[in-house]
Amino acid sequence: MATKTSRRANPGYRCSECGWTTAKWVGRCGECQAWGTVTEAGADASSGRTPAATVATPAVPIGEIDASQARFHTTGVSELDRVLGGGLVPGAVVLMAGEPGIGKSTLLLDVAAKVARHRRPEGSTRSVLYVTGEESAAQVRLRADRIGAVADTLFLAAETDLGRALGQIEKAEPDLLIVDSVQTLQSQSVDGTAGGVTQVREVAASLINEAKSRNMTTVLVGHVTKDGSIAGPRLLEHLVDVVCQFEGERHSRLRLVRAVKNRYGPTDEVGCFDLGDAGIVSLEDPSGLFLSGTLNPVEGTCVTVTLEGRRPLVAEVQSLLTPSGQGSPRRTVSGLDSARINMILAVLQRRAGFPLNQDDCYVATVGGVRLTEPASDLAAALAIASAKLNAVVPKGLIAFGELGLAGEVRPVPGIGRRIREAARLGFRRAVVPKSPEPLGELPDGVAVAEVRTLTEALETMKDWAS
């Protein structure tokens, strides 16, 4: 007698962070190694393959596709255009992430007003819809008055329900949609609270579908967690076209925007902004913010050139040494990596003969800038040596290079570009690592000393000081 094989529905489990699936529940994701993110995905509706459906729009040769529909439109903010690769692309979805209070809403409100005021070649203006779920419409209007971001075609809606937000989009038919923030919208069709994994996934998918179907540029504001990563499922970062990170210290006016992911442009550009009472403005030349500006040179200071993406920035490193009154000397670092400063202190003592084990050492940058690039090692070493010798680093000198444990100075990328940026600001002496590649054409009147070791760099500094 023939027996009928019955199949038990397999619910399946999915990781909320990366989308990895498994037939059995596990406590740790086998793909991204995150704990507690594997949840039940629901029963399989069918065990067969998905049947082919009727094609609404047949495929066409790539040469017949009109590429002008995806051209860049300026945001009116030059530094943001630099990061995005030229501006906003119709139909693109941009995720702007950053800590609370860092200036995301201020920047995007300014962008919304400038896009609404910008006229097309035929003379018409673009409409912009700003959906806020964190503030009331009156609160956003107060900020718009303060920063001068009021425009006739800029529409404002305070909504926390996804359905009503989609209704606002259908009624306004905007060219640009800004949602502040994606964690505050909630869909009634799925379970969970606003900001949860299920809700964020549903809200993002619905907004992305609207953006693609209407050819509408969409900017989503996202929150970050305590460790600085974007809140919500990692699937959100994969779905959007551009992911921008908003960075900055609360006590500093400087704000940096960098593209972590960009389907339409480079990811090594950085935009610099100044956040003040009148709003946020672009900084075309931010190097002056990171120099002390003292008239008389002081021992323990040295200027370096760091690369933020492809942009060279001139910054000053300051050091102070005082006799330690305790058995263990203090090491305090601000704006640099404390582990690298400890390594530089060890190299100075072991390779250059500087007795530093009885001194409290304080090392900091000027202007709140954070130097994470190893190219700032040589400037930090010369600043500490200058403080120990009680000798001033020659005026107009810059130094950069990675320092090794053997006391060698290693090459860094963009040496010629760094020297040209320093020369533009008036620096005429440079201590740089010996590079196997030519430096290219350098400005007139700039003396460049290429060194291989820390000892050579210290001797060069002493020779130029005499």
UniProtKB/TrEMBL annotation:
GO terms for molecular function: ATP binding; ATP-dependent DNA damage sensor activity; damaged DNA binding; hydrolase activity; zinc ion binding. Pfam families: AAA_25, ChlI, Zn_ribbon_LapB. Belongs to the RecA family. RadA subfamily. A motif (RadA KNRFG motif) lies at residues 261-265. PANTHER family: DNA REPAIR PROTEIN RADA (PTHR32472), DNA REPAIR PROTEIN RADA-LIKE PROTEIN (PTHR32472:SF10). This is DNA repair protein RadA. Residues 69-224 form the RecA family profile domain. InterPro entries: AAA+_ATPase (IPR003593), DNA_repair_RadA (IPR004504), P-loop_NTPase (IPR027417), RecA_ATP-bd (IPR020588), Ribosomal_Su5_D2-typ_SF (IPR020568), Ribsml_uS5_D2-typ_fold_subgr (IPR014721), Rubredoxin_2 (IPR041166). Keywords: ATP-binding, DNA damage, DNA repair, DNA-binding, Hydrolase, Metal-binding, Nucleotide-binding, Stress response, Zinc, Zinc-finger. Residues 360-466 are annotated as: Lon-protease-like. The lineage of its organism: Bacteria, Bacillati, Actinomycetota, Actinomycetes, Micrococcales. The keyword ATP-binding applies. PROSITE patterns: RECA_2.
